[in-house]
Amino acid sequence: MTGAVHYGKRSWAAMAAAIALACHSVRAVSVADIQGPAYLSPLKGKSVSDLTGLVVAKSTSGFWIEGPASDDDRVSNGLNVFTTSKTVLSSVSVGDVISLSGVVSEFRSSSSPNDLFATELDSPKSIVVHSSGNAVTPLVLGPTGTRSPPTQELSALDTGSDGWLSVPNNQSSVDATNATLRPDAFGMDFWASLEGRLVTVRAPVALDFENDFGEFWVHGDWAVTGKNSRGGLTITIGPDGLPDANPETVIIGSPLDGTTNPTVSLGKTFSDITGVVLYQWIRLLLHPALDSSNRGIYARSHNSTGDDQIQRR
Ligand SMILES: *[C@@H]1O[C@H](CO)[C@@H](O)[C@H](O)[C@H]1NC(C)=O
Ligand SMILES: *[C@@H]1O[C@H](CO)[C@@H](O)[C@H](O)[C@H]1NC(C)=O
Ligand SMILES: *[C@@H]1O[C@H](CO)[C@@H](O)[C@H](O)[C@H]1NC(C)=O
User: Fold this and answer.
1) What phi, psi does 17 have (nearest 5°)?
2) CATH homologous superfamily of domain 12-131?
């Protein structure tokens, strides 16, 4: 009898500990569990431990891990781990399978209250490297892969007689609404469903000049609408009678390794670009995960003599 009471006390203590843990920390979740099928994480604000993933890219302000792929196209299996700690950064390399703890966070700069929140893992700790030198295989977008962006609409919230150009167009509602993603229908949902993943854009074509940061818009080898004779994409009127938002375009950001993108101009085509998908402003940015040892972006343009010019910066 005493034994039973004793056992009861112990099990109550264990249950209390488990409840405390459930409130503050979620064990053994996957990256896909953190991303979920919507804009905002179901685990926002929670501490997680024993999170396992393959390191697929690194920068000076963090790294990206991928967990097992979800068979739900809405759910990304990639995640940005935010840290500027040199000690933490030097403890992981691309190709490592690691486990770690941290806090799931939806981040945007306080000075940019209309930006989308980026889902990330903050305060990484308890990092254990289980194996190194594993193959890192990007998801190839376009017809050779399994995923291509939609070509017409940006967001389910673009209502009004002018579609995405209607005024007011309250972009900040995207996160407030936190709808589940519809990557087949809406461009923002498509790119959000790839947040944090390493992807390859085949045969990218520049759609403008680079900006002051060396960033430029491209489309890949997938279907596009509004292609014009200069190689750009014209905003046409879609079959629904609304302006086509050209959501099949994506910005190429500055390389993660600190190198510089090539100079670009409308219609220039490039070698394949591999990078991680992340948010910038309200659209998505593909940051080339350039590693000086193996990847670069090569520009190929046809000049007046018809010759190819290859350049690398
Ligand atoms: C966002 O929506 C998803 C899907 O309905 C839900 O699981 C998640 O908890 C929501 N996140 C927040 C922070 O509201
Ligand atoms: C936009 O959405 C936000 C969040 O739902 C809301 O607070 C704000 O009032 C909205 N602004 C307009 C102009 O509709
Ligand atoms: C055209 O490209 C060729 C090969 O790179 C180069 O030698 C030539 O100078 C280029 N011509 C012009 C006008 O840029």
Assistant:
1) -65, -40
2) Nucleic acid-binding proteins (2.40.50.140)
The pLDDT tens digits of the residues spanning 133-163 come to: 999 999 999 998 889 999 999 888 888 888 8
Q: Is a pLDDT exceeding 50 seen at residue 291?
A: no
| Strand 205-206 to 25-27 pairing | unpaired
Domain ranges of the chain: 12-131, 138-313
The ligand with the least distance to the CA atom of 180 is 1
Compute the distance from residue 179 Cα to the ligand 2 centre, in Å.
16
The C-alpha atoms of residue 229 and residue 235 are separated, in whole angstroms, by 14
Q: Which atom of ligand 1 is nearest to the CA of 42?
A: 9
Residue pLDDT, tens place only, 110-139: 887 777 889 999 999 999 999 999 999 999
Rg (CA), the chain: 22
Helix (H, G, I), strand (E, B) or coil at 17: helix
Nearest ligand 2 atom, CA 177:
5
Residues at CB less than 6 angstroms from ligand 3: 303-305, 307, 309
Counting from 1 in the atom list of ligand 1, the atom nearest the Cα of 43 is 9
Q: How far is the CA of 309 from the centre of ligand 3 (A)?
A: 6
CB atoms within 10 A of CB 49: 16
CB of 173 within 6 A of ligand 2: the answer is yes
pTM over 0.90: no
Comparing 10-24, 69-83, 276-290, the range with the smallest average pLDDT is 10-24
Ligand 3 atom closest to Cα of residue 309: 5
